[in-house]
Amino acid sequence: MRLLPHPATEDIQLTEVLRALSDPVRLEIVIRLSECGEMTCGEAGDALGVHKSTASHHYRALREAGVIMSKQEGRLKYISLRRDALDARFPGLLGSILSATPSALRPGFGIEAHAGS
After folding, report:
1. Positive or negative, the Cα torsion across 42, 47, 49, 55?
2. What residue ranges in 4-97 does DSSP mark as E strands?
């Protein structure tokens, strides 16, 4: 297993977290991870309705902001939400964002309608 580079908990910046979560596709990824737990990039990407390269861009933005953890095992990459790190750094932030997410974004993990907005 190889972890991809990501910021240490104390280095996570609020502005970067909020910037990463301001995109509807990235917010959907976070919602899905909070509901389903760890996923492969392929599993998450299949539900996004975007090209592989676009999904990779979103995963990287979330990882570099400190929102998700990415690890590689063989040919598969796994992503998971860094809930503990985010709660330690910004208590209640993630829970507040997830609970305030419009219900229109949640059902079916359907990004297609939001990707062009």
Report:
1. negative
2. 39-40, 68-73, 76-81
52 is written with which tokens?
């592989």
Tokens standing for 73? 């095992």
Q: What whole-number distance in Å separates Cα of residue 77 and Cα of residue 21? A: 21
Q: Which residues contact 30 (CB under 8 A, 6 or more apart)?
A: 21, 62, 67, 68, 81, 94, 97, 98
Strands, sheet with 2-3, edge to edge from the N-terminal-most edge strand: 2-3, 68-73, 76-81, 39-40
pLDDT band at 58 (very low <50, low <70, confident <90, very high): very high
68 within 8 A of 62, measured Cβ to Cβ: yes
* pLDDT per residue as tens digits for the range 86-104: 999 999 999 999 998 765 4
Distance of CA 16 to the CA centre of its chain: 13
Tokens of 93: 């932030």
Report whether 7 contacts 14 (CB < 8 A).
no
63, two tokens: 């990882």
